[in-house]
Amino acid sequence: MIVFATFDHSMYVELAIQNLEKQGIDEKQILAVPLDIRNNKFQILDNIHHSDGQSVFDVAAVLSAVGMLLGAIYGFVLPGGPILIGIVGMILGASLGFCIKLLVMRKHNRKQQAARQGECILVIQCEPNQVEHVEKILQSNYVIGLARYQDGSDG
User: Fold this and answer.
1) How many other CB atoms are found less than 10 A from the CB of residue 90?
2) What 3-state class would DSSP assign to 74?
3) What is the pLDDT of residue 37?
């Protein structure tokens, strides 16, 4: 029987391994594999194949509408007229909104990347009568996920 477990990369992985070895599981029957942390680059535009669920253009759309409205209102007083000043207000509002949202999202992504820890997969080969005990030890050490696999060598 093979038991797969995932952990946050922390001291609990080592504690789980020590407890398993104390209970008679040989160190050759335990495999710990740390997973690489992938740095997903921030994308400005989403496409049909990948979307991170964050919109960059929502603040830009709101501020462009506000800029266009204010430009059209004050365009009656300013030289250039309401249409030209409205278009300028729309462009300035959209640019300002896009820059604000871009800076906020980059700051948020940096914080998120700094807070991420790696994960570790623990693979334990044991006898079928040891599985319940192995799972109990792993759960007491804050395992994230567990899976069992019946290999062909166990009758």
Assistant:
1) 20
2) helix
3) 74
CA R_g for the chain: 28
For the entire predicted model, the pTM comes to 0.55
CB 124 within 8 A of CB 134: yes
Q: Given CA atoms 145, 150, 153, 155 in this order, what sign does their dihedral have? A: positive
Q: Distance between CA 30 and CA 53 in Å, rounded?
A: 39
Reduced 3-state DSSP string for 89-116: HHHHHHHHHHHHHHHHHHHHHHHHHHHC
Q: What does each C-alpha distance from 89 to 23, 45, 121 come to in angstroms?
A: 72, 24, 54
Confidence of residue 48 (pLDDT cuts 50, 70, 90): low
What would the pLDDT profile of 5-27 be if each residue is shown by its tens digit?
Answer: 998 888 888 999 999 999 888 88
